[in-house]
Amino acid sequence: MEETFPMRINKYLAWKKISTRRGADKLIEDKQVFINGKLAALGSKVKETDKVEVKGNKNQKTYVYYAYNKPIDVITHSPQNGEEDIKENIRGTGLPDDVFPIGRLDKASHGLMILTNDGRITDQLLNPKYVHEKEYVVKTSNKLRSNFKQKMEAGVNIEGYTTKPCKVTIINDFTFRITLTEGKKHQIRRMCSALFQEVADLKRVRFMNIKLGTLKPKAFRKIEGEELKSFLDPILKQN
To answer: What is the dihedral of CA 61, 20, 208, 124, to 10 degrees?
Structure first.
């Protein structure tokens, strides 16, 4: 989507991936932001032709983002008793030491994880008040029931909580694709269990606009360019 000018300075700095809006306000209060050589004020507006500078910020962190295919049996967080976590799994692959996974994918599941060193986006991606699509391909041990799609899409009662409506596409008698906008612990497995279906394999294939594609287990690729812009823009605008 094209942005419209004039634009508030904090929105502009967020749009340019320099800071969140709240972070931009702090930079402005600290007198580090200049528009056409003049000190910016809270609420200042920027035209498309204006020159915006953030001074005294020479050590600004460079944020990086990667799509990573988590293998089965790799732990997202807090490994125990000799378990292998993502940090161990990616050691020696060339990824920066400071990246961490956004969210979780349980030990028995595999597929797309977002790895980044950008702590600004963690809350926006994980807080349930924000809506972000996640897509999975699920295989079951037993044949899908005729009313499975209808029941799943309407919302399933899992231990007193009714899940939000979701989108289900049946691929074959034992496989379906599901798109969620929430992420309760083991949600898909619990939804299936409540509908008398046993999950044999669960793979995340998409997080917002980021797709797993042909990435092999343990492989990763950098998210950049238009793909990164489409990923970050709606997140940073939430600030």
So the answer is: 110
Give the helix, strand, coil percentages of the chain, each rounded to 5: 25, 30, 50
Q: Is 201 a catalytic residue?
A: no
Give how far Cα 74 sits from Cα of 1, 6, 28, 116, 227, Å.
Answer: 37, 48, 43, 18, 27
Of the listed 85, 106, 123, 233, which one is catalytic? Answer: 106
Q: Tell me the C-alpha distance between 57 and 158, whole Å.
A: 48
Q: Taking the model in full, what pTM does it have?
A: 0.76
- Closest by alpha carbon to 1, among 239, 234, 225? 234
Ordered by where they begin, the domains of the chain are 7-54 (3.10.290.10), 65-127+215-236 (3.30.70.580), 134-207 (3.30.70.1560)
Element (H, E) at 208: none
Beta pairing partners, 206 = 135, 211
Nearest one of 112, 72, 90 to 214, comparing CA atoms: 112
Taking only the tens place, the pLDDT of each residue in 171-224 is 999 999 999 999 888 999 999 999 999 999 999 999 999 999 999 999 999 999
Of the candidates 33, 49, 52, the residue with the CA atom closest to the CA atom of residue 41: 33
